[in-house]
Amino acid sequence: MGRATVRAAVASLLSNGAVPYVGQVYPARPVIMQEQDYEFYMVGQAAVYVSSTNGSAAVLVVNIPQSERQRRADTGRGAVNDSAIHDIVLEVFFASVGGEGIAAQADHDTITDAIVTLVRSSPTLANRVWSSGEFDAGVRVDEGEPYTDEAGLTVFIPTTIHWQVYEWDAGAAGTV
C-alpha cells in the first residue's frame, strides 16, 4: 500500500473505465517543464485524440499533491492501526477542434460527469483501497474559463477533479 499503489489504482480505474472521449491517461505528469509550456503541450496532446463528433477529446493526468497517515487506535508500539488519506487532483486537458463553444461544453460535461460517476461507482478501486471519493470531501470538479487558440478554431477548457482516497493500515509495525 501507499502512494504508488494508490496512483496505479486511480490510473487503472480511469484507463479501464471507458470514459468517453479520453485519449490518454497518465499516472503522473509525463513531461516536466514550465507550467505554461506544460499546459500548452498537454492540451495539444488532447487535440490530437479527436474522438467525439464535435471534435473533442481529453487527456488525464493523476496527481497526488498531499498524503497524510495518522494513527487511529492505540495498538501499542508493536502494531499499527492507521489511516492514510491521499488527495487526488486529476488534471483534465480538454480540447475541441470543432470550434463550437456549446458543443465543446457538452462534450466536456460528458467527460467530467463520466469521471465523477466512475469514481463514485468504484469506492474501493477494485479492492485496492479502503475508500475512494466518499465522505466529506466528495468528488469536486473545478472548471476554468474556456478559451480558444489564436485562430479561434479550438476550444480549451482547463479542469481539475478532486477527491480523496483512504487506505486503512492495520497490522504489525513495520509491515504496513
Task: Please describe what this structure looks like.
By secondary structure, the protein is of the alpha+beta class. The protein has a single domain, classed as 2-Layer Sandwich (STM4215-like), CATH 3.30.2000. The chain has helices at 3-16, 35-48, 101-121, and strands at residues 22-26, 56-71, 79-96, 131-132, 140-143, 147-148, 155-172. Strands 1, 2, 3, 4, 5, 6 and 7 form a seven-stranded mixed β-sheet that branches. The protein is elongated, with a radius of gyration of 18 Å. The N and C termini lie close together (7 Å).
Number of separate helices: 3
**What is the arithmetic mean of pLDDT?**
91
What coarse outline follows from CA principal-axis ratios?
elongated
Portion of residues in beta strands equals 35-45%
Report the span from N to C terminus.
7 Å
Portion of residues within helices: 25-40%
At CATH level 2, the architecture is: 2-Layer Sandwich
User: Into how many domains do the coordinates divide?
Assistant: 1
Unreliable stretches: none
Structural class: alpha+beta
Order of helices and strands: HEHEEHEEEE
DSSP, total strands: 7
Radius of gyration: 18 Å
CATH class: Alpha Beta
Largest sheet: 7 strands, mixed
